[in-house]
């Protein structure tokens, strides 16, 4: 997908009359001329800026040469008049565009791996949010969990849902699976799900096998006795109701025995360590989501604004990946004939900063020629910042040490 196609999708949805009709809470909302139109407000909210709302608004009017201003209170009132659906529509439209033809995407032995996991994040301390999502940790912080379906080879978020702080992972997975089967049936036929011990259960195995969906799920000591007691490193067992599973066992570099349950019969057993290791890419994506995109730095405190910011973050994750792919290709071509010791890739932090400062405003341009002229400049800025690619063959990357700053960091947007 090109950078121009992304903007085309976003502009089409944001400017569509049905988007406004479905999103606003009252038919009388956004019927009069305002300083910012409904579509302008959506584009403004889509940026990645983590400064104060007033600074963002002042910057918006300055960058667009508009001789007026708008208060933070007025913006808060405007966004309270519509729900999160415009941003969810954009997210799903981009995913459909990416996966409508999977031939250009990376595969593993003909399959498209999809990692499944959840990420916890803090919410503002409010009673209404606590009632909806619950609390987590020794300090009883108000928190939620995002259940995410992630493509680890191509680094796209395929689906996500925000749920309670302590959800039933297996139930959320099966609920999301129903949506994917209804909307991405062709994709599901080519996919293999990768999940950790939290998703192991007879119900999950039976449901996936019933839909003929491939999977590789790690099993712990509390798994079905038939799986735990499987004698060989590669065996086929039955766990009741004619549910047949292939059990793969191997040692990682730390001497720990890894047990995987799967219905993949056409992949050699020595390929499974590499396949399951792909799941760890979703952990890296969570790091980008929380620390670079800034998922926890919400721009509002109401349940409605939390949902808006959540889906904005999901959109930005895939936009970041699209621009990363474009920049990495340019970097590869630039260093193709050089004798550099290392290979290079784009710096994600710099990429996000550049998009934050330029991409949203490019979408607000009135004329197509302005957008066409703006995009090459943005790509050039992104491509300049590179980092060396360091190979790491570890099956289980070490846990990141939690510092005091990260444990007690604020989860509201910072002021300059």
Structure description:
Helix content is 46%, strand content 16%. By secondary structure, it is α+β, with helices and mostly antiparallel strands. The chain has 2 domains: 3-85 and 298-384, no CATH class; 101-283, Transposase Inhibitor Protein From Tn5, Chain A, domain 1. The strands form 2 sheets. Strands 1, 2, 3, 4, 5, 6, 7, 8 and 9 form a 9-stranded mixed sheet that branches. The protein has a two-stranded antiparallel sheet with strand order 10-11. The protein is globular and about 75 Å long. The model is unreliable at 398-410 (pLDDT under 50).
Summarize the structure.
With 416 residues, this protein is an alpha+beta fold.
Q: Which architecture name of the largest domain does CATH use?
A: Alpha-Beta Complex
User: Which class of the largest domain in CATH terms?
Assistant: Alpha Beta
What is the arithmetic mean of pLDDT?
87
Distance between the termini: 35 Å
Number of continuous helical runs: 17
């Amino acid at each position: 997908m090109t950078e121009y196609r992304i903007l085309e999708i976003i502009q089409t949805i944001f400017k569509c009359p049905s988007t406004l009709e479905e999103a606003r809470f009252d038919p009388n909302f956004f019927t009069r001329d305002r300083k910012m139109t409904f579509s302008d407000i959506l584009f403004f909210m889509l940026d990645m800026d983590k400064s104060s709302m007033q600074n963002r608004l002042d910057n918006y009017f300055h960058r667009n040469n508009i001789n007026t201003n708008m208060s933070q209170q007025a913006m808060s009132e405007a966004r309270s008049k519509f729900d999160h659906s415009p941003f969810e529509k954009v997210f799903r439209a981009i995913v459909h565009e990416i996966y409508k033809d999977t031939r250009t995407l990376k595969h593993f032995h003909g399959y498209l791996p999809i990692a499944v996991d959840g990420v916890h994040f803090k919410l503002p301390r409010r009673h209404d949010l606590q009632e909806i999502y619950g609390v987590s940790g020794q300090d009883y912080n108000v928190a939620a969990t995002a259940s995410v379906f992630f493509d680890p080879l191509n680094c796209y978020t395929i689906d996500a849902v925000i749920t309670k702080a302590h959800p039933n992972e297996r139930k959320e997975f099966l609920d999301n699976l129903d949506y994917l089967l209804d909307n991405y049936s062709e994709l599901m036929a080519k996919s293999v799900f990768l999940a950790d011990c939290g998703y192991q259960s007879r119900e999950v195995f039976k449901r996936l096998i019933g839909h003929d969906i491939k999977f590789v799920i790690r099993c712990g000591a509390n798994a079905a006795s038939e799986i735990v007691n499987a004698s060989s490193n590669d065996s086929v067992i039955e766990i009741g109701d004619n549910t047949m599973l292939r059990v793969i066992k191997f040692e990682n570099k730390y001497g720990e025995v890894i047990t995987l349950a799967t219905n993949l019969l056409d992949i050699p057993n020595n390929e499974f360590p590499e396949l399951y290791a792909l799941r760890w890419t979703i952990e890296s994506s969570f790091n980008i989501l929380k620390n670079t995109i800034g998922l926890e730095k919400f721009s509002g405190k109401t349940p409605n604004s939390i949902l808006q910011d959540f889906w904005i973050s999901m959109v930005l994750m895939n936009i970041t990946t699209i621009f990363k792919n474009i920049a990495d290709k340019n970097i590869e071509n630039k260093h193709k004939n050089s004798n550099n010791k290392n290979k290079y890739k784009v710096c994600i932090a710099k990429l996000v900063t550049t998009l934050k400062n330029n991409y949203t405003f490019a979408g607000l341009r009135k004329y197509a020629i302005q957008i066409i002229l703006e995009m090459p400049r943005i790509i050039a800025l992104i491509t300049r910042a590179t980092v060396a690619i360091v190979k790491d063959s570890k099956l289980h990357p070490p846990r990141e040490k939690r510092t005091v700053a990260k444990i007690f960091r604020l989860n509201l947007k910072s002021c300059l």
